[in-house]
Amino acid sequence: MGYMDQFQRQKHSMLPNRPRNPPILYICIGVLVVGIVFTVINVYELQKLQKNHFEGHGPLTVVEGKEESLKPVYWIYGKKIDGGYLKHVMAVFERIGFVRGDESSEWDVLWAHDYPFIKLASKLSNLKPHQKVNHLPGSGWITNKVELAKTALTHIPPAFKIPDDRERLLKHVKIYPEKMWVQKNSNHRGIKIEKITDLDLKTEGTFVQEYISNPLLIDGRKFDIGVYTIVTSINPLRLYYYNGDVLLRFCPQDYNPFNASDVKRYVVGDDYTPVWQMPSLKYYYTDLGNTFKDSLNSYLRSLGSEPEKLWQQIEDSIVEVFTAKEKLLTQSAAKYGTTRHFFEMMRFDFVVDENMNVFLMEANMSPNLSSAHFSSNKLLYEQVVFNLLSIAGVARRVHHDSLQLRSADEFNMQVSDKDIQVFADVCNSQDCRNGCELLKCKVCRSCLTLDARMHLKYAFLEQTNSVTCKRIYPPLLTHKDATSLVADSWLPDKMSSANKMMHLWFQGKCLQDRQWCS
């Protein structure tokens, strides 16, 4: 018998006799041990997950002695990007929790000031699921001034590509000899009204366009209206514009007495006159604190005009351009498989004639966002960028070190399958129970493809993240219109099936919730 056995026997012999207790103590000890083991395992697994999660993002950064969580990364591509012209873009990114990286970073968002699909083609052909780029493949079909001007649309003044359309132009001039003409090229330099005999009708890469000779004047000045337009999807097409404000720019010289040789009377350049220097608008903008847009609206109403008609023409013009170019955009994006990586903001510039007719002059890719000339424009530019990043899903409510989703639960708490269900009665009909051939059934859960389901979920998120953006395609419906329209008969035959389904879905959401209506 060992020493310890003898000791235990002697110890127990000295104690008084008592009834044996159930082995509760041993059960408790066992449970405690098991708990400790599981805790150790969980801690190990958590550390392993954290290690995997941060892998590729570099070490934690320390600011003023405090550990800072890793942040998503934006990469800016362009010329002289530290020259200050993108400082408002950088400021917004940093305020929404991003840090600036470069080409070698594990970036989440590429902000390209220059068109990126040529020089960065290899990188953009192999994007990770969460990466986003601020341009659309093929956006030049809209932002190229020659391509846009030669598109025969309602709100674009007649234009003729040189030298291809030379003969057609000369015939047009004979019919309308009183018209004035300007010759333009893609860089928007050297615009000047010329006689038809003084125009260069041989040089390629230019176009001749009819000049709007009766512009609406405010305080004797011609002006243009810049509308910030946002594209979040190509196929199906979804369009918005920033509804909080517009950019109003006035020519630096009075329009009359008109002198075609003095371009400062009719061409808006970098030295434009701002709203706060215009006597008829200064009170609205400076004293009342209104936006550029509301200042213009108040002034037009004071003349007895209806600014709502002006804005409706602008919306119609933007939609008309994109629907005319939609097939070309879709073809340009085909090589990328999905276009959910891409979004774009363009500035559409309009002039208004004295009869309140609107004309589209150009659409600018990467419009100026620098307040170097006018510091008061800082707020407008930063609000435009914030609205853009919000509706594009870059500025998010869920924050961590990347735009990459951590789990399906994270996505579902923002938008689930239940959030995109519409037309419950239709989907419960015998037609839709028997199959998915009918268009009205294609928005039903059992008929939705994975790709269609994701498009609807992103459309849902755009609505909830729209801030002060207004959707113009598919158009907003009144609840009355949504109620009276028969499920799918109101959609044009020539509309793509993807666009038809998106229109139908927005109709269904309007019927569910009036917040989705106009």
In short:
The chain has 518 residues and is an alpha+beta fold. The chain contains 17 helices and 17 strands.
**On the 0-100 scale, what is the average pLDDT?**
88
Assembly state (oligomeric): single chain
Distance between the termini: 93 Å
Describe the biggest sheet? 7 strands, antiparallel
Note poorly predicted spans.
1-21, 37-68
Rounded Rg: 31 Å
Q: How large a portion of the residues is in β-strands, by DSSP E?
A: 15-25%
Class by alpha and beta content? alpha+beta
| Distinct helical segment count | 17
Shape by Cα distribution:
globular
What share of residues is helical? 25-40%
Number of strands: 17
General description of the model:
The chain is of the alpha+beta class. The protein has 17 helices and 17 strands. It has helices at 3-13, 24-54, 87-95, 121-124, 140-143, 145-149, 166-175, 279-287, 292-302, 307-333, 378-391, 408-412, 424-427, 430-434, 450-464, 479-484, 497-512, and strands at 61-63, 66-68, 73-77, 99-101, 109-112, 132-133, 159-162, 181-185, 193-194, 206-210, 217-218, 221-233, 238-242, 247-250, 344-352, 358-365, 469-473. Strands 11, 12, 13, 14, 15, 16 and 17 form a 7-stranded antiparallel sheet that branches. Helix 3 crosses helix 11. The longest helix has 31 residues, at 24-54. Mean pLDDT is 88; it is low at 1-21 and 37-68.
